[in-house]
Amino acid sequence: MKNSLMTYHINPIGFIQSPYKEKFAVPRQPRLAPSATSRIKLVGEANSPEAIRGIEQFSHLWLLFLFDQNLEAGWRPTVRPPRLGGNERIGVFASRATFRPNGIGMSAVELKGVIQEGNQTYLELGSVDLVDNTPIIDIKPYIPYSDSIPDALGGFADKEPDVLDVFLSIDAQKSLSSHPQRREIEAVLKEVLGQDPRPAYKKGKVDNKEYAVNLFDLNVKFLVESNSITVTAIDRF
After folding, report:
1. Which of 42, 91, 174, 233 has its CA 20 to 30 A from that of 62?
2. Could you tell me if 130 and 177 lie in one domain?
């Protein structure tokens, strides 16, 4: 009989490169910010064209990854999902909370292409919900006939979250005007901030605090009003 407390060692096969430089403001699910593209930098023995041969046949992939920034904090059997206002507790296995027994996450993402730069292999992806440099531990193709379940029930998360309008102040527009990625960044800002990244208990409420988040190579400051968000300032790192 095997020991039920056996441990296993997992090595990352790659690391994500995304616009999200910190956990704050990362979309709570993939595909909620379609303008925010990303890519995986494969490492070690996985950094080989042979390891991904044929992957271009698939439009989407499953990514398995580690919530590496939360591992030391441990986990609890119940959590407070943001979709329930952050007040109601449910079991951790009835949620997609980041504080999990083994810190493993899973996301379905779009595969946009494969890039080979010298000896380095990259997978170009669409929208993800991962902090920059998140360790990727496995990649599997998304199979529509088996993975898509049209009549599945979504429980407390059966509807897409409401999105607020996002406006850039004159100062913010000026700061962004000379950035080479201006159009992409402006689109990402509206998609990411429109989901109101504040703590769940503040959803739908107005406060006077000016928040800040690091996206791309920028520090973005913003205010939340009744039905909209205003970007007040944008500074380069």
Report:
1. 91
2. no
